Amino acid sequence: MIRVLIADDHHVVRRGLLFFLKTQKDIEVVGEAKNGVEAVQLVKEVQPDIVLMDLVMPELDGIQATKRIKALYPTIKILMLTSFADKDHVLPAIDAGASGYQLKDIEPDDLVHTIRQIMRGENMLHPEATTQLEEGLREEEQKLHVLNPLTPREQDVLAELTKGKSNREIAASLFVTEKTVKTHISNIFAKLQVQDRTQAALYAVKHGLTEGSGQM
C-alpha cells in the first residue's frame, strides 16, 4: 500500500482527492491537513510515503512545509499539486525537495500514475513545470556567466593578482611566461570592465573569485 497524506487548504480539493484515491487498491489516504503546520504535524504522527502538497496555504506554505518535512524525514516523498506552473514557484519547490510537480487540472488517472512513479523513485514533473525549470536553470547559468565571465586560467591569474604579486611573480607561480600573464590580465580588465589591478582585485574579493580555479 502507498500511504498518502493530503495537504490542501481547500476542503473541496481534499474531498475530491480523497474520493478518487480511495478507489485505488494500492493507495491508502492516511491523513488530511488544511495548512502547512498541520501537514508537518501529521507527517510526524502517521509518517506517510507521499504527501500531496499544495503550494499556497495559510500559516505555513507548501515550500516551507516541504523543507521541514524533508529535514525530518528525507525518505518521505513530496508531490506538489498546485495551480501555479511559473518558475518562481517551480524552482523553489524542487529546491525544497519535491519529487514531483503537477497541476491541479491533472486527470485522475494521471495523478495515480504519478504517485506510483514517484514511489518507484522517479521524478515526475508536469510538462509546463519542466519548461519553467529548464528556463530557470538557463537564467541562473547566464547570471553566473555575467558574474564570472573569466576562464579558469584567468581566474588563476586574478587570484594571484589579488595577492599583490607582480607579473613576473604570477608567471613563476603559474609556470607561464610574463607575456602570457600580460595577455590574461588584459583580458581580465576587458571582461570585468575595470581599469586597473586595484579595481580587478576589488571585483575578485566582492564576487568570491580570490581562490582561483586550481587548474594548471
Explain what you see:
This protein is of the alpha/beta class. The protein folds into 2 domains: 2-141, Rossmann fold; 148-206, Winged helix-like DNA-binding domain superfamily/Winged helix DNA-binding domain (Arc Repressor Mutant, subunit A), CATH 1.10.10.10. It is 56% helix and 13% strand. It is built from 10 helices and 6 strands. The chain has helices spanning 11-21, 36-46, 62-72, 87-96, 108-119, 127-147, 152-162, 167-174, 178-192, 197-206, and strands at residues 2-7, 27-33, 50-53, 77-82, 100-103, 124-125. It has a 6-stranded parallel β-sheet with strand order 2-1-3-4-5-6, sandwiched between helices. Helix 2 (36-46) runs parallel beside helix 3 and helix 4 packs across helix 6. It is elongated and about 75 Å long. The N and C termini lie far apart (55 Å). The model is unreliable at 212-216 (pLDDT under 50).
CATH structural fold name of the largest domain: Rossmann fold
Q: How many structural domains can be distinguished in the coordinates?
A: 2
Q: Distance between the terminal alpha carbons, to the nearest Å?
A: 55 Å
Helix content: 55-70%
Q: What sequence of helices (H) and strands (E) makes up the elements?
A: EHEHEHEHEHEHHHHH
CATH superfamily of the largest domain: Response regulator
Radius of gyration (Å): 25 Å
Outline: elongated
Biggest β-sheet: count, sense, barrel? 6 strands, parallel
Instruction: Tally the helices.
Output: 10
InterPro entries: CheY-like_superfamily, NreC/VraR/RcsB-like_REC, Sig_transdc_resp-reg_C-effctor, Sig_transdc_resp-reg_receiver, Tscrpt_reg_LuxR_C, WalR-like
Domain Response regulatory: 3-119
Main location: cytoplasm
Organism: Lysinibacillus louembei
